[in-house]
């Protein structure tokens, strides 16, 4: 290579080195000026996806909300109630055994399966349990006092709670009022309408399949002109008067104020539904009277979900009530009639047979996974008391469930042709009273259930 060409080569090489040096110095200066680009101020973020590994980062945009699980039915609770356990003298004697003890299981032989099918079952105990050691004998009308075995019979039949506020609650005075509660509690059952101490609440809350049901029971005061309470014209002591829930027809505003407080307390206790059992109305009348209508409407306005009535000793209609402000509906059965009694056609001035009839009335509450609870269904099973002799020739009072799904009542219940005819007549009498109302109620509740589930996105 000529010296001239060599010098040119070295000059070029030297120039290139100088240029590269200048570039490097520039980069260093730039990196110092902008540290966040080439030298992040924080630790480098790991890539969300790398070859051969699975991402641990969400693959959805950060502003996308998580998908909510679909709403489902979480549980359902069916509460069933039947009418007066009206222990007349002949009914008491039907339970007397040869050894002197009492066994009332024959009353519930055909009926128990229907009671146990409910999640929670209630009946009105229209007698006291004063025992024989307190100056009282076993007796029926007009001052009821029954052997304790009736509670065992009711428990074995599947009942969970007995209503103890009625016009016969004080027939054996203070001892009967208090001992009745003790016998029921000792049997492992709940009671409602009377209480052992004045400072206990007027209501009971039962949690049934996760659904909190608040329940109340009240009876009318027999003589509102008396100073103090006097069920069945038995004047109560001031102390005892605090142990029973009553209302005075002549002072209903006081009752409504007390019920408003009860509802406020139940709301604070976060119940899902409220059921009112009430002893009211006119005996032997198959239609509700004006005072029943007024009281029912006011209870509806206060937010009660279900009203179940007793006392008339006959079945009265079912009605679907609407609150005055249109925000609430209430299912009301004005009277369940008798569950068991000796009020036979042959014994009564009323010769229509209605006193032999009763119902098992049931309501179902449904709870959804988002916490919503609704009254979803109501049903009614007609009952008839078949007064007959058993195989030993003893007269008994079995309650017959007049279930149309049973094809052969005659065989199922061991009926004669006359008994079968009377059973069918009882069914027809009851359905003539309650048929339209229960159908209207069922249709409304079905529509509301469908609407609720549509609003919850279940359809």
Question: Descriptors for this entry?
Answer:
459 residues, alpha/beta
Share of β-strand residues: 15-25%
Note the gap between the termini.
93 Å
* Radius of gyration, taken over Cα atoms and rounded to an integer in Å: 37 Å
Helix-and-strand structural type: alpha/beta
| Inertia-based shape | globular
Query: Average pLDDT, to the nearest integer?
Result: 88
Number of helices: 11
Helix content: 25-40%
Total DSSP E strands = 17
**Low-confidence parts, pLDDT < 50 over ≥5 residues?**
1-58
Order of helices and strands: HHEHHEHEHEEEHEHEHEEEEEEEEEHH
The major sheet is characterized as: 8 strands, mixed
Can you walk through the features of this model?
By secondary structure, this protein is α/β, with parallel strands linked by helices. The chain contains eleven helices and 17 strands. The chain has helices at 3-33, 35-38, 89-94, 112-117, 149-157, 173-186, 238-241, 252-268, 290-302, 409-412, 417-455; strands at 73-86, 120-126, 161-163, 190-192, 203-208, 211-220, 246-247, 273-279, 306-310, 315-322, 329-336, 338-340, 357-368, 373-385, 388-389, 395-396, 399-401. The strands form three sheets. Strands 1, 2, 3, 4, 12, 13, 14 and 17 form an eight-stranded mixed β-sheet that branches. Strands 5, 6, 7, 8, 9, 10 and 11 form a seven-stranded mixed β-sheet that branches. A two-stranded antiparallel sheet has the order 15-16. Strand 13 (357-368) and strand 14 (373-385) form a beta hairpin. Helix 8 packs parallel to helix 9 (290-302).
